[in-house]
Every structure is written in structure tokens, then in C-alpha cells.
Design brief:
With 169 residues, this protein is an alpha+beta fold. The protein is 22% helix and 30% strand. The protein has a single domain, classed as Protein of unknown function DUF192 (Jelly Rolls, Sandwich), CATH 2.60.120.1140. Helix 2 links the parallel strand 2 and strand 3. The longest helix has 27 residues. It is globular. Keywords: Membrane, Transmembrane, Transmembrane helix. It comes from Mesorhizobium helmanticense. This is DUF192 domain-containing protein.
Length: 169
């Protein structure tokens, strides 16, 4: 009887070891900012709409709504379409700090309040470790290619609409 219990325990330990090893292997295959590869999230089926004085502008977006996704962001991204961006979603309004380390694309960072209104627009310089912050609590940050906000007439006080931005559907 003791011999059979020992075999059962050994088999169980071996099965657990295989499961842990497989999990570690598959988890390690996910791109992260730590491995020097760009993280590509699925494009959200709903476009993000910027409501400006000159009309509405539509963007396809990736939504970064977990800590790992927000940390990786657009790092290592070499190119991005003019009408594409990444929306960072935080659990609650707070002061946020961004930087451009490991980000080769120049970006517009659009800081957005809980209500979907733009609080600040800042420029991000490629590869810079300088802190980029709006100086006020925000709930969302939209990153677009540099110059997009100016080109499309997106300004402080404009409204962003997207299902992830609950107060502005």
C-alpha cells in the first residue's frame, strides 16, 4: 500500500511539474517590453471618436487596460498607421507619468479625464526618459503618431468617445 501511495504521489508531482513548465514556456512566448519586441494588442472592434470643433475624427485603437499592457505600451513599435493609436485605461482617475524609453516613434499623448474630455496634449520624444505628465488626474491616455492631434484639430476640452470611456458613450 505504501508503495502505491509513493507511486501516486510521484506521478502527481511529475504531472504538476509538466503543467508548470508548459505554463512557463507559453507565458514566456508572450511579447513584453522586457524581451525587446513590440506588443501588438488586438484592434478594438469599436473605433474611438474624437469630437472636435471641425467635426469627428475616427481612430482604430488597441486598448491597454492591464498593468502589463500599460507598461509595455508602444515600446519597440517601429511604425503605426496615421489613424491608429493605443488607449491606456486606468481603473480610476489618478496622476500618471509616461516616458518614451524604448519607443522609437514620436507620439502625441492625449490625457483624458473620467468624463472623456481632453485635459492635456503633450509630445513624446523617441527614446527619451523624460517624464511626460499632464499635472492633473486622468483616467485615460490616448497615444497617436506625433502631429496627429494638430493635423486633426484635436484640442484640450474636446471629447473622446469609445465604449472603454464609460462616461462619454
Amino acid at each position: 500500500m505504501a508503495h502505491r501511495n509513493w507511486l501516486t504521489a510521484s506521478a502527481l508531482c511529475a504531472a504538476i511539474a509538466v503543467i508548470v513548465a508548459a505554463g512557463a514556456f507559453f507565458y514566456s512566448q508572450q511579447p513584453t517590453s522586457a524581451d525587446g519586441r513590440a506588443m501588438i494588442l488586438p484592434v478594438d472592434p469599436q473605433p474611438l471618436i474624437a469630437v472636435t470643433k471641425g467635426g469627428e475624427r475616427s481612430f482604430s485603437i488597441e486598448v491597454a487596460d492591464t498593468s502589463a499592457e500599460r507598461e509595455a505600451g508602444l515600446m519597440f513599435r517601429e511604425q503605426m498607421a496615421d489613424d491608429h493609436g493605443m488607449l491606456f485605461v486606468f481603473e480610476a482617475p489618478r496622476e500618471v507619468n509616461f516616458w518614451m524609453k524604448n519607443t522609437p516613434l514620436p507620439l502625441d499623448l492625449i490625457f483624458v479625464g473620467q468624463d472623456g474630455k481632453i485635459r492635456a496634449i503633450k509630445q513624446g520624444e523617441p527614446q527619451s526618459e523624460a517624464i511626460i505628465s499632464p499635472g492633473v488626474p486622468v483616467r485615460f491616455v490616448l497615444e497617436l503618431k506625433a502631429g496627429t492631434a494638430a493635423r486633426d484639430g484635436i484640442e484640450d476640452g474636446d471629447l473622446l468617445r469609445h465604449p472603454a470611456i464609460g462616461g462619454s458613450k
